[in-house]
Amino acid sequence: MNIYLCLLVALLPLTALSAENYAGKDSMNGISYKKYQGFPEKWPLVTIRFRKDTSEMRLTYANDVAMKTLQSGAINYPDGSVFAKTGIHTGVDDQFTSSVVPKGIRRYQLMVKDKKKYASTGGWGYALFDSDGRTFPEEPVVSQNACYACHALVENRGDVFSQPFSFIEKTKMPLGQLGLKDSSIKFEWKPTAKLPDAVKATLPKGIKKLRWLSNQKLRENVFQGTLDELKPILEEEARSHQAPALFLATDNKRFVIVMPVQDDNCIGSGAFKIWSTDMNLKAVDQSYCTHD
Questions:
Q1: Contact in structure between 42 and 62 (CB atoms under 8 Å)
Q2: Are 167 and 44 members of one domain?
């Protein structure tokens, strides 16, 4: 290796080197992308989900073992169950601007059941790949733990968010799913005086208490995307109690707050303000009107 290149590598931050080492692999967490490549042509489509926070359309597929369990209404998925997801960029159709259309594949996600191998994450193994089937420059353990913490919100569904929907037959949402609420999503009142200084400094003066999301597993396993994923849940809680709703990681550094506010520009809909820490742990604020 060229001596100048050696010196450059030596001077690079350790985090940069680590990120480089994680990227470009064809397997993550013991899960090979090649093994499941082509799943959209081989497996049935379970459902489609649109992520409002990332404007990403997600198509979820299941192998025979997972689909059989899902359709039976059971939640104890046997080893060998696999869910695969295609995340698709969306954007406005230039010639029909009231519609949003696919713009390209953003990622693939795999969720594999092996109770012994993945005992530390509820028996499910998680892997994420880019559009070329290669890993992202993210620490695998951190990513899989964040996936697990998020999926643990639906332990009452066997850690599976997707619910089957027929795109061929006329169908209604199964009665068993109507009004289903994730029992692990729990809020409690918390005095603002007991919050970390960084959070108290963000909140407007005069607020004595707020709704605090107390899920410990989720608070212990946080990555930046977690904060975005939780905004709709916090918004619902804030609207319901007309009070700020907070999610705070156990490190007391990363958080997101959603608070209802008055805004004459949001006629006929709710107005909210969000404070959320960015990658540099700086609180960034945003105001918006809901679409409901």
A1: no
A2: yes
Q: Are residues 211 and 163 in the same domain?
A: no
- Which CATH number characterizes residue 94's domain? 3.50.70.20
Rounded-to-integer distance, Cα 228 and Cα 147, Å = 14
Domain stop point among 109, 142, 176? 176
pLDDT tens track for 115-147: 999 999 999 999 999 999 999 998 899 899 889
Range of the domain at 249: 185-289
Query: At 170, is the pLDDT very low, low, confident or very high (cuts 50, 70, 90)?
Result: low
For the chain, give the secondary structure using H, E and C. Answer: CCHHHHHHHHHCCHHHHHHHHHCCCCEECCEEHHHHCCHHHHCCEEEEEEECCCCEEEEEEECHHHHHHHHHCCCCCCCCCEEEEEEEEEEEECCEEEEEEEEEEEEEEEEEECCCCCHHHCCEEEEEEECCCCCCCCCHHHHHHHHHHHHHHHHHHCCCCCCCCCCCCCCCCCHHHCCCCCCCCCEEEEEHHHCCHHHHHHCCCCCCEEEEECCHHHHHCCCHHHHHHHHHHHHHHHHHHCCCEEEECCCCCCEEEEEEECCCCCCCCCEEEEEEECCCCCEEEEEEECCC
pTM of this structure: 0.70
Residue with tokens 């969000």: 274
